[in-house]
Structures are given as C-alpha cells and as structure tokens.
Amino acid sequence: MVRAQELDAELHRARIGSGNGKITWQAPLDSLPNGCFVEVGGGAHLVWDDALCLWSAERYVERVPRPEHLVVTVLTPAPAVECFRAGCAPVVHESYRGGF
Fold first, then answer.
1. What is the number of domains present in the chain?
2. What is the pTM of this model?
3. Which is deepest, 1, 54, 88, 98, by most CB within 10 Å?
4. 58-76: pLDDT as tens digits
5. How large is the angle between the packed helices 4-15 and 78-85, nearest 10 degrees?
6. Using CA atoms, how far apart are residues 48 and 69, in angstroms rounded to an integer?
7. DSSP letters along the chain, please?
8. CA 34, CA 44: separation in Å to the nearest integer?
9. Domain that residue 67 falls in
10. Count of alpha carbons within 13 Å of 13, Cβ hemisphere only?
11. Are 47 and 80 in contact (CB under 8 A)?
C-alpha cells in the first residue's frame, strides 16, 4: 500500500526538477486524456473531450476546439496523466463548460 506522504513525494519529483524548475514534456495532443494541462500559445489549457479550455486565475475563460496533429508542452506531471488514462476522473471548475 502506498502512503499519501510517499505519493506526494513521487508527484513532487515529477513536478519539480533538480534545479527547482517545473518539469514539462512534449506529447501529441491527440494522445492526452481529459484532465491534462498543456501550454498552447503561452496559456495553460485544460484538455477536455474535443476542446481546450484556457485557464485564468479564477476560471476558464475560453473554450476552443482541440487542434488535431499538434505536439504540445504538457504541464501535468506524467504520473497524474497515467492516473487519468487509467480512469481516475479529475474534478474541474464548472466554468470549463463554456458560456463565457
């Protein structure tokens, strides 16, 4: 059984590199499950179904169609992406639905 403290330490290692910088990685956008955050055009976007939702400090402010065949910078730590792929459903702010 994995303890919460061990899990948190593993996630921290996946988030922050040895130089205290955020760890990001590249992946095809088509390959990412719901719940991932990616950088597109300088903004952080939630990947959700067929859309990207631009996040601001308070809520999602824009929902655009998910581009096809685009390689993006993934902001979500790799272990969390694997949890989403395995069926863990992220909880997201209700503004992801749109109606801006």
1. 1
2. 0.86
3. 54
4. 999 999 999 999 999 999 9
5. 120
6. 16
7. ---HHHHHHHHHHHHB-TTSPBP-EEEEGGGPPTT-EEEETTEEEEEETTEEEEE-SSSEEEEEEPPSS-EEEE-S-HHHHHHHHTTPPPP--GGGG---
8. 14
9. 4-97
10. 7
11. no
Amino acid identity at 77? P
Strands 71-74, 37-40: pairing is antiparallel
Residue burial 37-68, b: 16+ Cβ < 10 Å; e: rest: bbebeeebbbbbeebbbbbeeeebeebeebee
Q: 18 exposed, middle or buried (CB, 10 Å; 0-12, 13-18, 19+)?
A: exposed
pLDDT tens-place string over residues 10-61 = 887 888 877 888 899 999 999 999 999 999 999 999 999 999 999 998 999 9
Q: What does the alpha-carbon distance between residue 80 and residue 23 come to, in Å, rounded to a whole number?
A: 13
In sign, the C-alpha dihedral spanning 8, 76, 87, 91 is: positive
